[in-house]
């Protein structure tokens, strides 16, 4: 990467854009809402069940001017979801400042493993065992979404729930490839522990991106 471009990426003035698309939010609190997704490349958290592993290597995704990303997003929706990869790998301040200047609602989906940058209307924290969130993200998360792959994830979920703020909404979501096995376990767990809610990847059931 040329030094000038690298400098702009480091400042968040350009971002390694993997894809951008308009669809229906499928998960968590805002499921069913039309939203424009900005998927940023780059992630070293390394979840073995990740369904977008092609996002991990930032070098595979073209550095794109943040202003151009914002211009595209504003054409489609009032709700913008920034996801990855791990978007907090990069400084999100320029992106979110420009999106907010256009009066848009700005959401992030993050593992919380890096410094919280940017201005957010909604923070969906999906923590991973390999690289735990920063305290700042725990303190500011609006929803906690724990992916359930096996029984140990219920223990992990409770550990994480003890760290978030008292207003944070708690979700358990089945890992898609294990859904037939873990959905009944999640249902039983939520019925026994009603502070939790079930999140499903409804976009996959709807067969949309």
Automatic annotation (TrEMBL):
One of its GO terms (molecular function) is 4 iron, 4 sulfur cluster binding. Substrate binds at residues 24-26, 39, 83, 209. Belongs to the radical SAM superfamily. 7-carboxy-7-deazaguanine synthase family. Its cofactor is S-adenosyl-L-methionine; [4Fe-4S] cluster; Mg(2+). Keywords: 4Fe-4S, Iron, Iron-sulfur, Lyase, Magnesium, Metal-binding, Queuosine biosynthesis, S-adenosyl-L-methionine. GO terms for biological process: tRNA queuosine(34) biosynthetic process. Signal peptide: none annotated. Binds 1 S-adenosyl-L-methionine per subunit. S-adenosyl-L-methionine binds at residues 49-51, 85, 126-128. Catalyzes the complex heterocyclic radical-mediated conversion of 6-carboxy-5,6,7,8-tetrahydropterin (CPH4) to 7-carboxy-7-deazaguanine (CDG), a step common to the biosynthetic pathways of all 7-deazapurine-containing compounds. It comes from Pseudotamlana carrageenivorans. It comes from the Bacteria. It catalyses: 6-carboxy-5,6,7,8-tetrahydropterin + H(+) = 7-carboxy-7-carbaguanine + NH4(+). Pfam families: Radical_SAM (PF04055). Its EC number is 4.3.99.3. Homodimer. This is 7-carboxy-7-deazaguanine synthase. [4Fe-4S] cluster binds at residues 43, 47, 50. Pathway: Purine metabolism; 7-cyano-7-deazaguanine biosynthesis. Residues 30-209 form the Radical SAM core domain.
């Amino acid at each position: 990467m040329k030094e000038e471009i690298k400098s702009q990426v480091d400042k968040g003035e350009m971002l390694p854009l993997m894809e951008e698309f308009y669809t229906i939010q499928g998960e968590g609190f805002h499921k069913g809402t039309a939203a424009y997704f900005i998927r940023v490349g780059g992630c070293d958290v390394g979840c073995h069940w990740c369904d977008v592993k092609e996002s991990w290597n930032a070098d595979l995704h073209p550095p794109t001017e943040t202003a151009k990303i914002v211009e595209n997003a504003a054409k489609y929706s009032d709700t913008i979801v920034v996801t990855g990869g791990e978007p907090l790998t990069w400084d999100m301040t320029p992106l979110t400042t420009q999106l907010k200047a256009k009066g848009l609602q700005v959401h992030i989906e993050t593992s919380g493993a890096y410094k919280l940058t940017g201005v957010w209307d909604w923070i969906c924290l999906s923590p991973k065992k390999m690289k735990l969130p920063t305290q700042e993200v725990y303190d500011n998360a609006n929803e906690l979404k724990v992916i359930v792959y096996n029984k140990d994830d219920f223990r992990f979920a409770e550990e994480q729930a003890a760290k978030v703020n008292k207003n944070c909404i708690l979700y358990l979501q089945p890992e898609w490839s294990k859904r037939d096995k873990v959905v009944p376990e999640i249902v039983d767990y939520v019925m026994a522990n009603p502070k939790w809610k079930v999140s499903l990847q409804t976009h996959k059931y709807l067969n949309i991106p």
